[in-house]
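sorry for the late reply, my laptop died twice this morning and i had to redo everyting from scratch. anyway the thing you sent over, i finally got around to it. pasting the sequence first so we're on the same page, its 281 residues, then the predicted structure underneath. double check i copied it right bc i was rushing
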Amino acid sequence: MAVRSRALMPCAVVLASLVVAGCSVAEGSGLPPTAQPTPTIVASPTQASLKPATDCARSTVSLTTASETDGVQLTLSTDPSGTSLLVKNTGSLSVVVIPDANFSSHLVAAPYANPQDQASRAALIAVNNSGAKLPGIPKYVPLTQVINVPPQWSVCALTDDVKHTATVRYLQDKPSSAEYFVTKALADQLIVRSGSSSEETRPALIRCAKTTLAVLKKFPKLSDIQVYVEILSRSTCRAGYKALVGDTRATEQLEAAVIGRLGGAPRLLANSQLFTLTARP
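ok and here's the structure:
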């Protein structure tokens, strides 16, 4: 009997402490049976438990980079619900982004993912106010949902229902790229080097953005650098920045600096077709 009592001792200690549930009570021991403890199960979040994103600030889930055409590289990220899609242009050319064909997604600004310097912001404002026509964009898309995204800029796409995955379409647009290169190079000289404010430079930059469109349309076969020289020499553009810098010598120095900058700009390419991007992994 003594031997049997020693054999039961480990299990009795376990039952008393309720630490280990794997022991069984020996028949005839006189000890009551105890229930196995129920393991705690932590449920993983499901699509039903998630809420639609209200912006792309938490879009930290990386997706495959999009690069369907030369000069374009778009870094994509989403949130766990898939209802947001942050599109950041990490390529060398501008793209134009619009919602998906069903308009299940809508586009909003992503200021937390965009350049903050005055020159970049002034250049994009000029492009957006140039009145450019985009032949590759369907006419039924509202202008408020046609977003220019130059290099290093971003846009956010959102859906209002977790059943819908955030989706957009984009194309590489040659005039938009040329406009941004010209206005950014000018803004760097006028704002960064000359000390003009973004408000002061705005009319001049818009005039040069419009001139860019006119030159591209009139001289479609010119090389890139010839296009830039033609833009800067035209009175519609030149008068604007000359009024800011003053005398002829300062104007010529500015022009030389801008041309030098544009000489190293990425090569302009013809417009691409529309491509689709989605927040699906």
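The two ends are 66 Å apart (CA to CA).
thats about all i looked at so far, will dig more tmrw
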